[in-house]
Design a protein that fits this description.
The complex is a heterodimer. Helix content of chain A is 68%, strand content 1%. Chain A is mostly helical. In chain A, helix 9 runs antiparallel to helix 12. In chain B, the strands form two sheets. In chain B, strands 3, 4, 5, 6, 7, 8, 9, 10 and 11 form a nine-stranded mixed sheet that branches. Chain B is globular, with a radius of gyration of 23 Å. The interface between A and B is large, with 29 and 44 residues.
Chain lengths: 299, 367
């Protein structure tokens, strides 16, 4: 052992450390590790193993099937839908969050919007789909009311039960989620920095270009990636709205698991899930990298 | 090494206990779980007694408004005093099989299954062979020789519509017109649900396709979609009632049931494309209530059960024999829509060909 840099003043003398004594520090993490193993690792292993199993034993056919046009199409749709809803949600959510920050930090409005965001960000699935069907569905009360006033929102096609409808419904829970994840970053921005910019002769543009932009950028893109993963993995909302054609990956998995006309292929479902895992893993790695950059400024 | 002996002794004891409990279970239910007919159990009264002792029956994926199952469920409970737990009423046949596999060994596993052809044939290892007392009335082509599965009821693919909302339908070509904008639905996704697959197949046959060629049906629905007439919502009693799906491709017996909610509901079966199909009934090999499961089978294939299906406008499998014996509910039979022409039944190969085509073309056609 070499003593590289000894502190000049030894404020609190530590008790003698007994060399390589077996540490029990990790014991506290056991529940967490067990949870991760059970609910994250085990399912992943099952998915990976399952994607090599076919009706007659081990096979690669599930993975080679991934280039079939309808499967590629489902993934393309999933990625486009998730990216679009993430971008819309991120931009609108960021604007809303910025509006909140400029107001009174302890004001009623801010507390109201933050708690509402907390609820609405989790308001997905069948209930959300039903809310949309009941209001702007084919026989929804807003649809009918508009029709009575000469406006047919479905004149150009029944868009609610397609990808464009999903985009609208997803945005509904994406915006509040963005508010929640972006607010802390905005709160970390100090007014003094702006004053400093101005005292050094910087204009508003300079402040955003050289100070706030670089600080908030990673948080914004990190939030966008989180929103992407959120939309990419959504199933219940889509399943309740879209009943035909399984146009996105999560619905396609559901279909290969429950089809009663002989398209029941658990191996193919596992392979599809594996591709989804890979895509989400890439997104989450990017998210972690950005998160680390953001965290530096928010301490 | 006395501790090792101790462990060994405990292990032997434990093993003996397991054996004992296993024996205990088998003595009470062996006869029911392995009974291939009511006679194996010592007759109907013994079967009824054993079922009453189990005190429960689990069924799955049979909505009460599906082929009049509601009356059958109530009739069974009223007659034998055995309550029925009906799980996941809107599930698919594959959901039923998944439940059998995932809930195996629990008391919640389904006792009996009502499943479509493809799923039935793909899971033969899950069923217990059982021959109901009325076995000989069932045509040989409609049952597995050992009784692993038996066809139960069937009907013909039809187009049901609310005559108050859309013009009368006399041919499939009518559906392409502007009077049907945002009106026409299937009972599910044809890559997933048997009823929907047959809906597309019927459209194919009516449009110059054949049981070997479903592509014309896919083209037809693509055209409906392009014209803005296709509603991508699964038609259910609720969507028919609230008007979201005023035109539905579905089995005639399911469609006819909508008349209860919508008095102006009409059912049209095109004479150029009469496509029939039967569902199958099977007993779960690992049924948690083996006697009740077999008693349910007896009830379904009794005159009461068969006539209940008929009142639901489904065609029960013993229909011909009952007509001959004079036990058929003639008033209910008279309500069935007359079918002019020779019905087509898809063979296994044709159904496989159809689903393969749908898997790669359906999403594109209606996307």
């Amino acid at each position: 052992m070499t003593v590289a840099a000894k502190p000049l003043v030894d404020t609190a003398r530590r008790p003698l450390e007994g060399g390589r004594r077996f540490s029990l520090d990790w014991l506290g993490a056991v529940p967490f590790l067990a949870y991760v193993a059970l609910f994250l690792l085990l399912p992943t292993i099952i998915v990976v193993a399952g994607s090599f199993v076919g009706p007659t034993g081990l096979t690669l056919s599930n993975l080679t099937a991934m280039n079939k046009p309808f499967i590629v199409g489902a993934f393309v749709n999933s990625v486009v839908l998730s990216a679009a809803s993430a971008l819309i949600g991120a931009v609108l959510g960021a604007i809303l969050a910025y509006a909140l920050v400029t107001g009174n930090p302890n004001g009623v409005l801010r507390r109201l919007v933050v708690s509402a965001s907390g609820v609405l960000a989790q308001f997905g699935g069948v209930t959300l789909a039903f809310a949309f069907i009941a209001t702007i569905g084919l026989e929804g009360f807003i649809t009918i009311w508009l029709k009575q006033h000469g406006i047919d929102i479905y004149g150009g096609g029944i868009w609610l039960f397609q990808l464009s409808g999903l985009l609208l419904v997803y945005t509904y829970f994406q915006i509040p989620l963005m508010v929640l994840v972006f607010l802390p970053a905005l709160d970390g921005i100090r007014p003094q920095w702006r004053e400093a910019t101005e005292s050094l002769g910087g204009a508003t543009w300079d402040y955003w270009r050289y100070v706030a932009g670089p600080l908030l950028g990673p948080a914004f893109f990190g939030g966008t990636l989180l929103l992407f993963a959120n939309a990419f993995s959504a199933y219940a909302t889509a399943a309740a709205l879209i009943n035909q054609g399984s146009p996105i990956a999560s619905l396609l998995i559901g279909n290969t698991l429950t089809s009663e006309v002989g398209l029941h292929q658990p191996g193919l479902a596992s392979a599809l899930a594996l591709v989804m895992v890979v895509i989400v893993a890439i997104v989450m790695v990017l998210y972690t990298v950005l998160q680390q950059r953001t965290a530096k400024w928010l301490r | 090494m006395s501790w090792e002996h101790g462990i060994r002794r405990t292990a032997i004891l434990a093993g003996a206990l397991v054996l004992l409990t296993a024996c205990g279970q088998t003595t009470s239910t062996t006869s029911a779980a392995n009974a291939k007919s009511a006679a194996d159990m010592g007759g109907m009264s013994a079967l009824v007694a054993a079922a009453k002792k189990e005190g429960k029956l689990n069924i799955i994926a049979v909505p009460p408004d599906w082929a009049n199952y509601g009356e059958i469920i109530n009739g069974f409970t009223a007659k034998y005093g055995i309550p029925i737990d009906s799980a996941n009423p809107n599930g698919s046949s594959q959901d039923e099989v998944n439940a059998v596999q995932q809930l195996a060994g629990t008391t919640r596993a389904p006792d009996v299954l009502d499943i479509g052809k493809a799923v039935t044939l793909a899971n033969l290892n899950l069923y217990a062979p059982y021959k109901v007392q009325t076995w000989n009335d069932i045509p040989d082509s409609q049952k597995e020789p050992t009784g692993l599965w038996v066809q139960d009821y069937g009907g013909y693919m039809s187009i049901g519509y609310d005559s108050a909302k859309v013009p009368a339908i006399t041919s499939l070509q009518d559906l392409l017109g502007s009077g049907f904008k945002g009106r026409i639905a299937l009972n599910g996704d044809p890559t997933k649900a048997n009823a929907a697959l047959n809906g597309v197949m019927m459209a194919s046959i009516a449009n110059g396709g054949s049981p070997d060629d479903i592509s014309k049906g896919v083209d037809f629905f693509h055209q409906l979609k392009v014209n803005g007439n296709f509603v991508p919502v699964q038609a259910t009693t609720a969507t028919v009632k609230n008007g979201t799906t005023p035109v539905v491709f579905d089995w005639d017996y399911l469609s006819a049931a909508h008349g209860v909610d919508v008095p102006t509901w009409k059912v049209f079966t095109p004479s150029s494309a009469i496509l029939g199909d039967y569902y199958n009934q099977a007993v779960n090999k690992q049924a948690p209530h083996p006697a009740a499961a077999r008693l349910w089978m007896e009830y379904l294939y009794s005159d009461a059960g068969q006539n209940a299906w008929l009142r639901g406008l489904a065609r029960p499998v013993r229909m011909a024999a009952m007509k001959k014996a004079g036990t058929l509910d003639a008033a209910a039979a008279a309500k069935l829509a007359p079918v002019n022409g020779t019905p087509t039944f898809l063979t296994d190969a044709q159904a496989t060909k159809a689903k393969d085509y749908l898997a790669s073309h359906w999403a594109q056609a209606i996307g």
